[in-house]
Amino acid sequence: MPVYEYKCSECGVFETVKPMHAFADPCDCPDCGQTAPRVLFSVPHISGLSTSTRRAHETNERSADSPKRTSTHGPGCGCCSGAAKKNSKTLYRPDGSKSFPTKRPWMISH
Q1: 1, 29, 37, 78: which has the fewest C-beta neighbours closer than 10 Å?
Q2: How many C-beta atoms surround the C-beta of residue 30 within 10 A?
Q3: What are φ and ψ of residue 17, in 5° steps?
Q4: Which 3-state string (H, E, C) describes the chain?
C-alpha cells in the first residue's frame, strides 16, 4: 500500500499508509484526532524499484518527446542518400518524376 502525506492544522505534517482507493479521503491526525486533508510535499519514492524497472522508466522519459535517430544508415542507403536501389524497378525521369513501369500502370505517381 502507498504512503500518503497529510497536514494537520494543529500538529503539522504526518504520513500514513492507506489503500489506493482512499487516496483522496482525509485522515485523522494520530496525535490530536483532528481531520487533516491530504497534501503533496515530497516526490514519489521510486528508489524501491528494481534496477531494470527504473531504467525502463528513464528510457521512456527520454524517448517521450522524440524517437532515437541514427545519423547514417550506411553507404547506399535509399532513405537518406536519395540513391535508388540497384534492383529497383522505379524509373526516374530527368524532370524528377518517377514511374513504375512494371507495377500498376494505371496509377499516377507524384
Answers
A1: 1
A2: 13
A3: -95, 125
A4: CCEEEEEECCCEEEEEECCHHHCCCCEECCCCCCEECEECCCCCCCCCCCHHHHHHHHHHHHCCCCCCCCCCCCCCCCCCCCCCCCCCCCEECCCCCEECCCCCCCCCCC
* Contact predicate 33/14, CB 8 Å: no
Taking the alpha carbons at both ends of the chain, their separation in whole angstroms is: 59
Q: CA-based Rg of the chain, rounded to a whole angstrom?
A: 31
User: Rounded to whole angstroms, how far apart are CA atoms 99 and 110?
Assistant: 9
Residue whose cell numbers read 500502370: 105
